[in-house]
Design goal:
Elements (H helix, E strand, L loop, with lengths): L17 E4 L2 E4 L10 H17 L2 H14 L4 E2 L3 E3 L2 E7 L7 E5 L6 E5 L8 E8 L5 E8 L5 E7 L5 E9 L7 E3 L2 E7 L7 E7 L4 E5 L6 E8 L4 E8 L4 E6 L3 E4 L7 E6 L2 E6 L7 E6 L12 E4 L5 E8 L2 E8 L2 E8 L4 E5 L11 E3 L5 E8 L2 E9 L5 E6 L9 E9 L5 E9 L9 E4 L17 H5 L3 E5 L9 H5 L6 H17 L8 E6 L1 H12 L6 E5 L18 H4 L5 H10 L13 E6 L8 H13 L6 E6 L10 H18 L9
Length: 671
């Protein structure tokens, strides 16, 4: 790795804030960076200037045209079938945002219902919910990536707005469900997102409160069945158990003994429960909808039992059920009868199906999914639940030629003897040897990392880089046991899994300490921040995106208090002990750290940008080596959802430009 010039970061004022927690004094010299003030804005601007100064303009300008070309392609989300119509989010080349369209048949000619590219400001349309007959659709728009929404209802035939409900706060498609005369939706306080209401609005505009008795740490999901006029409400903590309620005149608790996570499906007169009740890999229980009022857990039928796969999604296909499962962190699909008997397995290559991209059709023997892999751009497939076959109806076409890539699943023994899988991707004509390598991971909140496709990654791979995506404890790749082995007091195991994969890559000669970069975002940003404070010797560079870093105050801002189920609470003396042991912000000390780019965004309403600011300031103060510690703060965007294509390009240029420079990646191979 070549030596870099000495570009010193801006001086950051140190404060005197001290907390006392469980008898221990905790210094927090950069507490003032939590403020929303002109002083902090000035500091952010200085940090962005410093980052721009560090980045090599010649590399950035070399990368720019390649990234601009590689993102110029159509994008498709999975279609949602309602009333013989197919609703879908798509974007055309050179469009910044996805638009909502409707088709009369899958893959056919579309009509545009709503196009954020024509709206004023940086507006994204991230989700929508059609009514069961396909006559109306409600969609959510957010400005500047804040994930605080306005709702719009359209008449699908006329394309006219029926109503607009502004400023509903945090809402998503899981909290929106239609009945014949209107729909349920969640509203949160704009300033305090944990103050929630469940409401019902009629198509004539009458808006009613259903309940505001929703615990601060829990979120509602709503499920309806038009035929029986049934409304089921699930209230759950992130990564925790679900309380089920039947809504009649009021919410009535049902199945109280079902102490587990539950995802209901109301279809053909039955209620199916996808659940981890008394199982790790999930199963499907069911009962007639009419029995929901009085049934007990013992009376539920086991429709699809636990198997060696992890059940991820359950969708209807008329008189069939279609199931998405994981086996060794890759996706599989099977078709079952309404009683649960497996009819057939769908033959798929090594691919992943992203969360939220698996859909069924109440009226036809068909289901839809996005499949993708590291060497396979996303494509929408239509699954025939009668024949077991599938066809591609939409596929992403990359303008740059995709190099021939090899994808290999490797298994690495972690510190406790468990085998951790990782997917390694590189050019097929390349035998990795001391190669520039990125180790990407997440490790938390039941989120599995399956094979996926990143167009911006192609340039790194083409230039001889190796991309390794590790499936650490904390995810759901092998079920709830795998998740629990990486949460709360077991969180250190996630980091140890990560180091085990890194050490394997070095010991086998695939890469070296001088050529290995750490990369992760959000909870994965916490992973990277911890890795470079615990094991800076392992990494030559790091990209730490929208991270949590202060694990003793994370619960005090934005959505942080809803994550105590996953991490533990600093207010609890036992939890405090394990949190302070790894909290990245509190474990920075005078030593040499690898070159690090920390990225956050002004509009992030999930993870407080102060985590990144405080971490960057303390890292810069304690860096004893010459390597730069950079903070880059984006504007007009948030945690990442709905980011415009133009911003994705700028983000890729900054992140890969930083890595290409620090890992000495040969840009001549890009052409």
């Amino acid at each position: 790795m070549k030596e870099k010039k000495d570009h010193r970061p801006p001086e950051t004022e140190r404060g005197s804030a001290v907390d006392e927690l469980h008898g221990k004094k905790i210094k927090d010299p950069y507490r003032w960076l939590e403020d929303d003030s002109d002083k902090v804005e000035d500091w952010i601007e200085e940090q962005n200037d410093h980052t721009e100064d560090i980045l090599d303009d010649s590399i950035l300008e070399k990368l720019r045209p390649h990234f601009e070309r590689v993102v110029e392609h159509k994008e498709f989300a999975t279609p949602v079938a309602r009333g013989g119509r197919y609703f879908q989010l798509i974007s055309e080349p050179e469009e910044d945002q996805r638009k909502l369209v409707v088709r009369e048949e899958p893959g056919g000619k579309y009509e545009v219902l709503a196009d954020p590219n024509e709206f004023e400001g940086v507006v994204s349309l991230n989700w929508f919910v059609p009514d069961p007959d396909g006559n109306f659709v409600v969609y959510g728009t957010t400005e500047g990536g804040t994930e605080l929404y306005d709702l719009t209802v359209l008449d699908v035939d006329t394309h006219e707005e029926v109503m607009v409900i502004p400023d509903v706060g945090r809402c998503n498609e899981g909290a929106v469900a239609w009945l014949e005369d209107g729909f349920y939706y969640q509203r949160t306080d704009i300033e305090d997102q944990l103050e929630k209401e469940l409401r019902f609005v009629e198509l004539d505009g009458e808006d009613h409160l259903v309940t505001d008795d929703i615990p601060r740490k829990k979120w509602p999901l709503v499920f309806t069945d038009q035929e029986t006029e049934t409304t089921l409400v699930g209230i759950s903590e992130l990564g925790g158990d679900t309380e089920l309620y039947l809504l009649q005149e009021e919410l009535k608790r049902i199945l109280p003994e079902l102490e587990a996570s539950v995802m209901p499906l109301l279809h053909e007169g039955r209620c199916y429960f996808l659940t981890d009740h008394e199982t790790s890999r999930w199963k499907v229980l069911s009962c007639p909808i009419q029995d929901l009022k009085h049934t007990s857990i013992e009376e539920l039928d086991t429709t699809i039992p636990e198997s060696d796969k992890v059940l991820m999604d359950l969708v209807p296909a008329k008189n069939r059920l279609v199931v998405h499962s994981l086996k060794d962190a890759s996706s599989s699909i099977s078709v079952h009868s309404l009683k649960g008997e497996k009819i057939q397995e769908i033959d798929l290559p090594l691919v992943g199906i992203p969360r939220g991209e698996f859909r069924g059709n109440d009226d036809k023997l068909e289901a839809y999914a996005v499949i993708q892999s590291f060497n396979r751009p996303p494509e929408i497939i239509k699954i025939d639940a009668r024949s077991g076959g599938w066809d591609s109806i939409n596929s992403v076409q990359i303008s740059n030629r995709i190099p021939e890539l090899e994808v290999e699943r490797i298994w690495i023994e972690s510190t406790d003897g468990k085998k951790v899988p990782a997917f390694m991707t590189h050019r097929k004509d390349l035998t990795p040897k001391d190669s520039p390598t990125v180790l990407y991971a997440y490790g938390g909140f039941r989120i599995p990392l399956t094979p996926d496709f990143k167009a911006v990654l192609l340039l790194f791979l083409k230039a001889g880089g190796v991309w390794v995506q590790a499936c650490l404890r904390g995810g759901l790749e092998f079920g709830e046991d795998w998740h629990e082995a990486g949460m709360r007091e077991n969180k250190q195991q996630v980091f140890d899994d990560y180091y085990s994969v890194a050490e394997h890559l070095i010991e086998t000669g695939i890469t070296s300490e001088d050529n290995l970069a750490a990369w992760g975002g959000s909870n994965g940003g916490l992973l990277v921040a911890t890795a470079i404070t615990q094991r800076p010797d392992l990494f030559a560079s790091a990209i730490c995106a929208v991270p949590l870093t202060d694990m003793l105050r994370f619960h005090k801002t934005l959505l942080g208090s809803t994550w105590t189920k996953e991490y533990g609470s600093p207010e609890d003396p036992d939890d405090f002990e394990w949190l302070k042991e790894y909290s990245p912000y509190h474990n920075i000390e005078k030593r040499e750290y690898p070159p690090t780019l920390i990225r956050t965004a002004v509009g992030d309403t999930r993870v407080d940008p102060a985590h990144a600011r405080k971490f960057a300031a303390r890292m810069q103060k304690n860096q004893e080596g010459e390597a730069p510690i950079c903070l880059w703060t984006e504007t007009d965007t948030g945690h990442g959802l709905g980011k415009p294509t133009s911003m994705i390009v700028e983000q890729a240029i900054h992140e890969f430009g930083f890595l290409f420079d620090r890992l000495d990646v040969n840009t001549k191979k890009l052409g």
